[in-house]
Amino acid sequence: MNNHGITKTSDAFDFRPGLIRVSVSGRANTLTLPSAGTYVIAAYTGKHLDSAIRFQLTGQPQDRTPADADSSIVATPDGGWGGDTELPTSGTLRLTNDYAVPNELVLLPVVDGTTAEQAHDWFAANPGVFPPPWLLPGPELGMMPLDPGASETRTYTDYPPGTYLAIDGLTPAYPPAMLGIVHLSG
C-alpha cells in the first residue's frame, strides 16, 4: 500500500470480513476488501493518521477459497486461546476470532520453560511494566486485528525455534486477559 492507492505485494495475508488494518513495516501484505463500499486508506505515523484517501469499491464479490494453513489458533468464546500449540518455524498460520470482541494475536519469544501462569502472575504484579524479564529479543509473529467471526492467514518464514507467549495485542489490561504458550520447532 502507498499514498496513492493499494498494491498487492504478496499472498502472505488473507483477510475475511471485519476490521481491516495492514501493517507495511518491513512485511509484504495482501489486502482483500470484503465487499463493495466506501473505504478510507490512511497512514499511521505513530502519533496521528496521515495521508487519508477515500475511494469507492464497486463490482461483484469474487469467490475465493481460504488459503491453506499448516496450523491454526482460535480466540475462543470464553476469552482464551485454543488450537495448535506446536507450530512450524516456517508456514502459514490461520487465526480465527470466535470471541465477542476484536483481538490481535501476537507471539513474543520468551525463555524456554515460561508458562502462561507465570506470565499472568508477572503482569498482575507489575502493571504497566514492559518488557518482562523472561521476554527474549527476536522477531514477533503478529497477526492483524480481527473483528468477532473473522479469520485471516499469515505466511511466515524462518522464525527461531523456541517458546512464544501468545498475547492479545489489542488488550491494554494488566494482566492481559488472553495469554497462552506455543512452541515453534523445525
Describe this structure as you would to a colleague.
The protein is mainly β and 186 residues long. It has a domain at 71-185: Sandwich (Immunoglobulin-like), CATH 2.60.40. Helix content is 5%, strand content 35%. The chain has one helix and twelve strands. It has one helix at residues 116-125; strands at 13-15, 37-44, 49-57, 71-75, 81-83, 86-88, 91-97, 105-110, 141-142, 151-156, 162-168, 179-185. It has a five-stranded mixed sheet, with no helix packed on it. A five-stranded mixed sheet has the order 6-12-11-8-9, covered by helices on one side. Strands 2-3 form a two-stranded antiparallel ribbon. A hairpin with a 5-residue loop joins strand 4 (71-75) and strand 5 (81-83). The longest helix is centred in the middle third of the chain and has 10 residues, at 116-125. The chain starts with 12 loop residues before the first strand and ends with a strand. The model is unreliable at 1-30 (pLDDT under 50).
